[in-house]
Amino acid sequence: MPQLFHRSTNTLARLSIVLGILLAGGVLLILLQANRTPYVTQAFVPREQPVQFSHKHHVGDDGIDCRYCHTSVESTATAGMPATKTCMNCHSQLFSNSQYLEIVRESWRSGQPIKWTKVHDLPDFVYFNHSIHVNKGVGCSSCHGRVDLMPLMWNVNTLQMEWCLECHRNPEKFIRPKSKITEMEWPPSDKDKDSKDYPNGWNQAVDGPRLVKEYNVQPVTVLTSCSTCHR
Amino acid sequence: MLRNRLRTFGIAACLMAIAFVGTACRQDMHDNPKYKPYRDGSIRELPEGVVARGSLALNPPAPFIQKGQAPATAASPAPAAADAGAGATAASTSVPIPAGEDGFPFKITKEIVERGQNRYNITCLPCHGQLGDGNGMIVMRGFRKASSYHQDRLVKAPTSYFYDVITNGFGAMSNYADQLSPEDRWKVIAYIRVLQTSQHANATDLTEVDRKKLDEAEHKEKTKEGSHSSGGHSN
Predict the structure, then answer these.
(1) Cβ B141–A85 below 8 Å, yes or no?
(2) Is residue B50 scored above 90 in pLDDT?
(3) Which one of A11, A112, A197, B72 is at 20 to 30 Å from B131 when CA atoms are compared?
(4) What are the residues whose beta carbons fall under 8 Å from the beta carbon of B44, sequence distance 6 or more?
């Protein structure tokens, strides 16, 4: 075996090889972690919208159910963006002179839909269907967070694959009764009881696996199969 | 010799790293050049003459007409028009409304009422309120007061009248044809009948057990509310 190092190589030089590898590994680690930060995923960054629509007001203050506007969430892949007419159901009378809503009225007059900024934008190579999640007991707030506290919309999750898999590997940790899908505060407080779904109070460790069975949620092998989401 | 090779290797690695970082910024796979719903942040406008798939089902004449029933004579867009005023324009466009069993195109079961309640709470409750008395949150915010289902006119109105109002709107209420499927409209009406019954029921209509509960509740909260008017109505 020929001599690997030059005669002049001292301890420092040898150490620098090890350090170099560590440094490269460190940089890689930082890059991978950086990829998960809000700087990249835009989590918690409120998006500018053409109209300053506040979920906090409509959901939190007014108590309007998610499905009043997102009508197709239970039946199709997309939750459905409300038509301008849905806005006008109320705003034909409420805030009908407000400057904030001029864009809505303009859209109503012209028939041109409002162009909203997408907040939860999955990559196009992912197949995602709202209806199957909602119909199997995955609630709105599980993915979208407390929208009733968001003046402008932001995402609270990375929407990265590891995040999807967190639930696809352990659906029993996140599932909830179908009747509580649009409930914002979940899990409920200890005192909260529901005569039908959880008479003794909600206990995820017990009720989760029960619902997974009851709702016939696919086994984890299917949920984590590549082609379930990449088809 | 070895040094040279190491240097070449180093340069190659650097180039690859740069290429890697460079390509990672491209989002071609994330944003395929294909049509998806709400791609541009809104609904695509339909070209003239195009009917969106499924949209015809929003106001179908067919599925809810009972066999052997002539649609034209079915029940009554007529009283609706008389009642409403707004119904006049509606009658021309509205679909024939069946006078199915008990005024509904299908038999009313517990599941149907529960679905009706579910949809009511989503779509109607903001204005009409939990009890159907027209005091919903949106009304409290200043919207014109919604009709109470418990007024005489609406207690007597046929189910077809409610269907007509949901489908075509009435007064300040815009139509809900887009937000409620025809099937759900009927189910909501079934639940409205439940609400009406609940507000016009006699305590004597209850079973022994329920009456006891009522008495207890009344005991606890010895105040107001004694508006039990005439017993029941045709449902």
Answers:
(1) no
(2) no
(3) A197
(4) B35
Say whether A78 and B38 touch across the interface (CB within 8 A): yes
B168 contact partners, CB below 8 Å, separation of at least 6: B86, B87, B89, B90, B93, B94, B175, B177
Q: Of how many residues is chain B composed?
A: 235
pLDDT average, residue stretch B76-102: 40
More confident site: B12 or B130:
B130
List A residues 41-100 in contact with B (Cβ-Cβ < 8 A): 62-65, 67-68, 71, 77-78, 81, 83, 85-86, 88-90, 92-94
The first and second tokens of residue B25, run together, are 């910024």
Residue B66 token pair:
């009972």
Residue ranges of domains in chain B, CATH in brackets? 79-202 (1.10.760.10)
pLDDT at A151 over 50: yes
Sign of CA dihedral A122, A126, A131, A135: negative
Domains in chain A: boundaries = 72-80+121-229
Beta bridge partners of B173: B170
Q: What pLDDT is recorded for position B10?
A: 79
| Helix H or strand E encompassing B82 | helix B77-84
pLDDT digits (tens, 9 = 90+) for B99-135: 444 478 888 899 999 999 999 999 999 999 999 999 9
A74: nearest CA partner in chain B: B119
| Distance, CA of B52 to CA of B48 (rounded, Å) | 11
Please list, in sequence order, all residues whose beta carbon lies within 8 angstroms of the beta carbon of residue B233, skipping any fewer than 6 positions away: B155, B156, B196, B197, B200
ipTM of this complex prediction, to 2 decimal places: 0.87
Collapsing DSSP to helix, strand or coil, B147 comes out as coil
Which chain A residue is nearest to residue B173, measuring alpha carbons? A89
For the record, the structure tokens of A181 come out as: 């899908």
Q: pLDDT tens digits for A210-223?
A: 999 999 999 999 99
Examine the pLDDT at B44 and tell me if it is beyond 60.
Answer: yes
